[in-house]
Write a structure and sequence with these properties.
The chain is 44% helix and 17% strand. It has 498 residues and is of the alpha/beta class. The chain has one domain. α5 (169-177) runs parallel beside α6 (192-205) and α16 packs across α17 (401-407). Keywords: Hydrolase.
Length: 498
């Protein structure tokens, strides 16, 4: 018996070694062309004005929009390609403002999906594996028009408040200050002493900190301290109820390693049912005053509400996910299913999801700046694909299609202070453009009708975009998928930030 067990162990070890040594597919590269383009007779979508400029002529030279005119013109340009835009709609490239490149294999299975679905810029929120060195190299290669992937306009190079985190927050700020394209991600577990020390130092050094609102800290105080954005739709629900202080005290004691009892934690159902208008309005007013952004990632709450639904779990987009990630997602969904089994808990998850939508809409109507983000590579949040779903969620929340589109185009440009280059279809701006077959102001689902993408001075037709998806599906399946999974797992064991 021992002999067979030893053989099995040796066989398994050899299999892992073979998969670890199995070469990764070469990352996709950007097109390299000296063509310029004129899109003739196209309808330009102006989301900020909630209008369409009909029958426009858009001249793209290099990576910029050289000229826009309502009258036909023909540039003196021997390299120009004419594109028929009649009856089609032009929007800026999309942004995902809460994305996770997650692992070192992002060029093989994550980045191409963003580009294939029109996401040309991201704010990357770090993850459980430290891939800072890779991300800096990716950022350079993408800007140099080599690697195919979305621009990393900003990324979190540090996480404070995760499990086992005991970092010196001043040193964290000092490290982040060395790269203006990075910021500090705030996680839920940071306590007030470290949080406000970090905020003070970050504000003095001009370092951005953004992320979760800390469980043990009033988000009003966090907004006043300068946190740039709050993530996830539980923000208002967990704050705006009579049990919020008790909930914060529970987490303060828990994170301080004090003895706590589960009964000390307020019921999540009671917190939702006890929603308090005055507390909600107070937080909204403070966020508006401080220009604190809100990135609700409603697709994650939708997943929690639908984790029981096998049709939802059998998403055909799983073809783009390596086996290890699919197993992690399946295990998480099983956990959510168990969580929802007690009486009333499934209803709670559904009510939490719908209440979150309602409060996002109300906060936006009151002036809170909303950003579209997906938490991609969290369960059932697919790179690129889920950004379009999030836009649909924002419309469910009460935003108009134009306002939802703003949250994924011009508002991110304002957030990063790059409105001179991004966010609108205007002469002089970077030509990140999606040519759609249908009008997204009539139906936000029309952002999915991408016929061509313009990115870094190159044109990607529908066949190019489909080829990117095929490349990812191929990498995520079969022996390639298992080889990716082994590489991800070993990196996770070596460099787990949590």
């Amino acid at each position: 018996m021992m002999k067979y067990a030893l053989i099995a162990v040796v066989f398994f070890a050899l299999l892992i070694l073979v998969l670890w040594l199995y070469p990764l597919a070469e990352p996709l590269t950007q097109k390299s062309s000296d063509h310029s383009y004129i899109i003739k007779g196209v309808n330009i979508v102006d989301a900020e004005a909630d209008t369409v400029l009909h029958n426009q002529f858009v001249y793209i030279k290099g990576d910029r929009i050289e000229r826009i005119a309502s009258d036909a013109f023909t540039p003196d340009d021997a390299n120009m390609v004419q594109v028929e835009g009649t009856g089609k709609y032009l929007i800026p490239g999309l942004w995902d403002m809460h994305s996770h490149l997650a692992f070192q294999i992002a060029p093989q299975v994550i980045m191409p999906l963003h580009i294939a679905h029109g996401v040309t810029n991201i704010r990357d929120m770090q993850g459980i594996v430290n891939i800072n060195e890779e991300r800096r190299q990716w950022r350079q290669d993408i800007l140099a028009e080599k690697l195919l992937g979305p621009r990393l306009i900003g990324f979190a190079d540090e996480i404070v408040g995760a499990n086992y985190d005991e970092q010196d927050v001043v040193e964290v700020v000092n490290r982040t200050a060395a790269d203006p394209n990075t910021f500090i991600k705030i996680y839920s577990g940071i306590l007030s002493e470290r949080y406000f020390a970090l905020a003070k130092e970050a504000n003095a050094r001009g370092v951005v900190f953004a992320g979760h609102y800390p469980n043990a800290i009033n988000p009003i105080d966090a907004s006043n301290a300068g946190q740039r954005s709050f993530e996830h739709a539980h923000l208002f629900i967990k704050h705006a109820n009579p049990l919020a202080d008790q909930n914060r005290e529970y987490y303060r004691a828990l994170y301080s390693d004090e003895e706590v009892d589960a009964s000390d934690r307020p019921s999540v159902v009671a917190m939702l049912e006890g929603f308090d208008e005055e507390q909600f309005n107070e937080l909204v007013d403070v966020m508006v005053k401080n220009e604190t952004y809100f990135c609700p990632t409603h697709v994650t709450r939708r997943y929690e509400a639908l984790a029981y639904d096998q049709d939802f779990l059998d998403d055909p987009n799983l073809q783009y996910v390596p086996p290890l990630v699919a197993m992690i997602w399946s295990d998480d969904a099983s956990g959510m299913h168990e969580y929802a089994k007690p009486d009333g808990m499934q209803t709670y998850l559904e009510d939490f999801y719908t209440k979150g939508l309602e409060l996002t809409g109300r906060a936006h109507d009151s002036g809170v700046k909303v950003l579209a983000g997906t938490d991609s590579y969290d369960p059932y949040s697919f790179p690129g694909i889920s950004l379009h779903q999030e836009l649909e969620e924002l419309v469910k929340a009460g935003l108009t299609p134009a306002e939802a589109l703003v949250s994924a185009t011009s508002e991110p440009a304002v957030y990063f202070g790059v409105t001179a280059d991004y966010g609108r279809v205007e002469a002089g701006k970077v030509a990140d453009l999606l040519l759609l077959s249908k009008n997204p102001l009539e139906d936000i689902r029309n952002t999915r009708t991408i016929e061509r993408l313009y990115y870094n001075g190159n044109q990607y037709e529908k066949t190019d975009l489909e080829a990117m998806k095929t490349y990812v599906a191929d990498n995520a399946s079969g022996i390639k998928g298992w080889a990716l999974s082994v590489k991800m797992f070993l990196r996770l064991m070596k460099d787990n930030r949590h």
